[in-house]
Fold:
Amino acid sequence: MPKIFDVHAHYRGGFGGRPGMPPSEPQESPQERMDYHALKLREAGVAKACILARGGVGISYEGAIKTMEPHLDLVVPVAHLDPEPSSMTPERLAELHSMGYRGIKINNTARDYDDPAYFPVYERAEELGMPILFHMGVTGGGLDYARTHPRRDPVAAEMYQRTVERLNNPPPPGQAQAGPFGGRRNMSANRMRPFHLDTLSTNFPRLKLIGAHLGGTGSYDEAASVARWRHFVYFDLSGGEIIERHAYERGYIGREIGVEKLVWGSDCSPDEVSTHVKRLEVIFDLLNLKPDERERIWYRNAAEVYGFEEPELAAP
Structure:
């Protein structure tokens, strides 16, 4: 099994039972869910995993990191946050760092990622040595119309009906919509593009930046362009079967994007991690990647980003 560094594992400790648990089963505690996630990561060969905890959604930052403490040989705590000045300040970020959080995850912002309003948070992250993982492209979730449709899939039909029901019966003003597509949300893929990382890398040249999902479907060339010329910009291969297939078929692994600029993230339920690992191993076989090239993508690049390994440099 390869030694793996997972840069994109969402915290699932504060949201009730595990995915797939029958409704009649007792709800697990946040600690039990964290323990199970750690178990499945280890079984898949993951040696280090960035667990992305969004404080205040199901559990606080303080509560989330407490559940991670038994697994700190595996877990790298990452604070999933909103960089809006009303939501996050440099001082609060420093508190999270003191608490044990070693990186940041950002997505679905109200402004472009490179809006100057967010610069104070980025500046403090650079000072603290906290890498930032940015979601890139369209936000997934709910029905995947590339794979299914309510007219031919009963499960998809049920999901569609639930969405329509939420739209027809919105909650009172001020209450959040249930689920990712329960109603209007101020979100746009145009605010989450790889070219925004170019701006950030030039303004914060020591800040380590990771763009998720190879830059997002439809933005691979932007990602390749930024990775080509910016020292500390990387892209992860999370996002599932379609993005993995595109990365292979369109030559983005080791050709359009050098192997030193790619990292891996699961971005899936704990029970699916091993499947994602095995599928990417097949892709690496098809590409005839050398052992050191595989090791770069699976572990070494991310380990250097997070400071677990010193950067390797060619001898004169």
User: Anything to note?
Assistant: The longest strand covers residues 46-54. The chain is about 35% helix and 10% strand. The chain has a mean pLDDT of 91.
